[in-house]
Structure formats: C-alpha cells, structure tokens
C-alpha cells in the first residue's frame, strides 16, 4: 500500500495542481455523503477548509471515517483515514494559507473550521507513487 510520503514528482504535482476532489463521509442514516472540495496536503496531513456546522462537519463529529478522492483523466488518488474538526485560530489560519497557495485566497468566513484528515490508506494510479 502506498503512502503520502512515497509520492513521485508526478504525484506531488498531482496533489498540488489546481484539482478539485470529493470528500466522502458517513451520513446520519449510515449512507455515504459525498461533496466536492478543495484540499491540501502538508507534512502528510490532508486539510479541507469549510464552515462550522456544515453536513460534512457534523458527519465527521459523529463518525471520523473520511476519504478524499481526486481524479483527472487517467490519474486518480484516494486518501482514507480518520478526520477531526479543528477550530483553533492558528490551525485555521495555516489551512487557509495552504488553500490560498494551491487554489486562491478564500473569502472571509468567521465560521471557518478545518477538517484534518490523517491518512490510514492511500491508493492511486500508476506513476504517482515510488
């Protein structure tokens, strides 16, 4: 099984170029809740900025299992693990800076929180991992 640390140069480019992804969490009825997200990877940790109280936040607070998946043409990546919600001002500022570097400066959002996902399992297409 691959790890974030074993990304090749192509893999690092794939997770840093402008690509959206999906975040899958477990909904309140036990079904899978999937939403489009922007995400970043820094020091092996996946971060997603969002609004406090959103469905994805409520889902993670109830069940920490989450998966981020990105696809572009024949390349794909799936990162599964345990997620937590961070509300600390410094954690949010760090995640916003990472997001701005990959995508764009996000709008001001006083209710912003961070979904912090620690990968347990990483899968992807050939060429993304050493």
From TrEMBL:
Residues annotated as domain Pyridoxamine 5'-phosphate oxidase N-terminal: 8-123
Classification via SUPFAM superfamilies: FMN-binding split barrel
Sorted UniProt keywords: Oxidoreductase
Organism domain of life: Bacteria
UniProt cross-references to Pfam families, sorted A to Z: PNPOx_N
Name the UniProt record assigns to this protein: F420-dependent biliverdin reductase
InterPro entries assigned to the protein according to its UniProt record, in alphabetical order: F420-binding_dom_put, F420H2_bilvrd_red/Heme_oxyg, Pyridox_Oxase_N, Split_barrel_FMN-bd
